[in-house]
Amino acid sequence: MTLADELHSPDVAQDLRGWFCRAFAPDSACAVLEVGDAHLGNWFANVTRSESALSAAASAESVSFDMVVIHQSLGGCATLQSALVSARRLLRPGGWLVLSGANRLRPADRGVRPSIRVPRATGWGFRSALKRAGFADISLHVAHPPDCAPVYVIESHPRSARAFFGAQLAARGLPNWSPRRLLLGALVATNAMPYLQPGFIVVGRRC
Q1: Do residues 90 and 67 touch, judged by C-beta distance below 8 A?
Q2: What is the mean pLDDT, run by run of 10 residues, along the chain of 207 residues?
Q3: Alpha-carbon distance 28 to 52, whole Å?
């Protein structure tokens, strides 16, 4: 079943821009991507297959999906790049990849050995990896707060990220000349805040 069939809306399959997307995992072998209009409250779900599905299905030439979701797992592949190449094989031309992974600059599981191999890279590294694997229209998002039930998903584009993290900073009520406020203000102004979050959601379109 294609994304268009599952969502009963061809407009969503043709253009996901302008829609609100969020991803979460009810367990380690299953991820759910919800796509909908945040203002209207319309939500639709697409459930991925299990951990080893990506590497196994990539060899099937007849498989063609509108969307592939890689959530906190390499899908049975050895490296991030091989997982991206396998995902591209599964997508129809113009199909979308949504990858949820960890920030190599800010590990959230320091001192803990994960049971599955989580995709890890910097924000710039994820963008570069998707580009090398044959994806375009790549956008980087972060979830805030960074837990299993994100309240917001913010695009790293300066206009979006500066507005969000600037409002977060203003809400803290820190004194204007405090060192912490000055540091955070500089990070907001240079749009570094999205790239310092513990995890990313990266979206790209197959060329």
Answers
A1: no
A2: 36 40 49 51 48 54 72 82 88 88 78 67 96 95 72 85 92 92 96 93 92
A3: 12
Q: How far is CA 155 from the centre of its chain?
A: 10
| Tokens 């979308």, located at residue | 96
pLDDT at 51: 46
Three-state SS annotation for 40-73: CCEEEEEECCCCCHHHHHCCCCCCCEEEEEEECC
Look at the block and give the residue holding tokens 């969307």. 67
173: Cβ–Cβ under 8 A, 6 or more apart, which residues? none
Of residues 127, 153, 146, 118, the one with CA closest to residue 22: 153
Q: What is the pLDDT of residue 18?
A: 40
Residue 161: per-residue pLDDT: 92
What is the residue whose two structure tokens read 């299993």? 148
In the chain, list all ranges with CATH 3.40.50.
3-156+194-206
- Which neighbouring-strand residues pair with 143? 153
CATH topology of domain 3-156+194-206: Rossmann fold (3.40.50)
What is d(CA 71, CA 97) in angstroms, rounded to the nearest whole number?
11
- On whether the CB atoms of residues 34 and 45 are closer than 8 A, the answer is yes
Nearest to 109 by CA among 118, 96, 97, 98: 118
